[in-house]
Amino acid sequence: MYFEGQWMKYKDGGLYSGEWDSNQRSGNGTLQEAQGQTYLGNWHNNKRHEQGKQYYKDGSRYDGNWHNDKRHGQGELRCGDGSIFDGQWKNDVFHGFGMHISPSGMYFEGQWINGKPSEMAVKIVIKGASPRDAQSDQPFTIEIETHDANGNLVKDNGRKLELTAGVKYAPVTATPQSSIDLTSDDGVEDRLIPTELGYDLFPYPICNDTAFFEMYLKECEEEEPDPTVKGKAKPKERVKEEDTESGKDDQASIDGSLVEERKEYPRVATVTVEDGTVTVPSLFFAPPPPNYKPFAVPEEETPPTPVDRSKSRAAPGRRSEASINARTASKLSKRSSFEEKGVRAGEYVISVRDITQPPFLGFCLEPAYLIVRLLPSAAKKAKAAKKPKERGQSTSP
């Protein structure tokens, strides 16, 4: 240690320059520590006291009051990660009224007790009963809140939430029991969404893009098979019979459609909580992507039909059995294309998770789930109810 006038150099490399009293740092002075920290301000008995500024080696800095070498009273801390606390301190921790702003943009303004907000959100809540019924052709709205452990609303601001959806996943067995058909999907486990519901979810597209929804409904109306014409649809292009009889996978009826062209759905954007609440309007379940079958339908096993090889040649003017089978398979494929195009009625799960980064005070909220029972569209239900009445009416000669 070397002392001269108003400055002193310590053995560890630190340097103090300022006022002294009884051989102790007292009054105004600056201490540059060997570890890279610097303090400029008042001292009392070798301890930081009253007003002063502390610069930390990680880039953080504090400007405010001190007591007995600890931050105490009014002060502002700007951390190296971008977070800011401006308010009251006690024994080196937040205590009293203050505002904390996270680098994510989330902030809390209110009372603090021993370094924590007096009101601390711990979970996400989706208002309303679960399960909830919804119709496939009617968008719906959900309201989300942040609550404390006692179920009280906490007025978080700027917290980021992600909304996704899925269907219940169960491994496919010999007899299909799962709610989704994944028999031909490799690496499905890597795509599953873990939940606290006792089962995982397989992702399913959910959107809130109203323009996309209106386009989808319009297309479904144009492409819907005509129930009055047995075995025929209303395609945009006429299907060539030779393609059908040859067993080709006929997709002409939906060529150029929204289903075939889309590569990716307009996903629900990240939502931001304000005063502890956020409303997500115009939600709907999108039609499944091409070749995506979200619900498994057990197929009935049909015993093979014995073939009389002595009559394998078809009589003149009659189609061969292979041709008939190919035509039937093509019709089923076409019908399947129409069925896969729309959203199927069933049970879906909406998941809401806290994706605030970095997590506010190092803590992420518990996620929330909403089970939605999707019902057939109102238009289809009305049409189905109208059919029996039309068939029962007699026509006058």
Topology:
Blueprint: E1 2-4, E2 7-9, E3 15-21, E4 24-32, E5 38-44, E6 47-55, E7 61-67, E8 70-78, E9 84-90, E10 93-101, E11 107-113, E12 116-117, E13 123-126, E14 132-135, E15 140-147, E16 160-169, E17 200-203, E18 206-207, H1 210-223, H2 241-245, H3 258-261, E19 271-272, E20 277-285, H4 321-341, E21 346-354, E22 368-375, H5 378-392
Parallel strand pairs: 14-22
Antiparallel strand pairs: 1-2, 2-3, 3-4, 4-5, 5-6, 6-7, 7-8, 8-9, 9-10, 10-11, 11-12, 13-15, 15-20, 16-17, 16-19, 16-21, 18-20, 21-22
Number of continuous helical runs? 5
Main sheet: strands, sense, barrel: 12 strands, antiparallel
Give the spatial strand order of the biggest sheet.
1-2-3-4-5-6-7-8-9-10-11-12
Order of helices and strands: EEEEEEEEEEEEEEEEEEHHHEEHEEH
Give the end-to-end Cα distance, rounded to a whole number of Å: 121 Å
Count of distinct strands: 22
Poorly predicted tracts of residues: 174-184, 231-263, 296-303, 331-340
Mean pLDDT: 76
Radius of gyration: 34 Å
Shape verdict:
elongated
Helix content: 10-25%
SS strand fraction = 35-45%
Counting helices, strands and paired strands, the structural category is alpha+beta
Textual characterization of the structure:
The chain is 15% helix and 35% strand. The chain contains 5 helices and 22 strands. The strands form 3 sheets. Strands 1-2-3-4-5-6-7-8-9-10-11-12 form a 12-stranded antiparallel β-sheet, with no helix packed on it. Strands 14, 16, 17, 19, 21 and 22 form a 6-stranded mixed β-sheet that branches. It starts with a strand and ends in a 5-residue tail after the last helix. About 16% of the residues have low confidence.
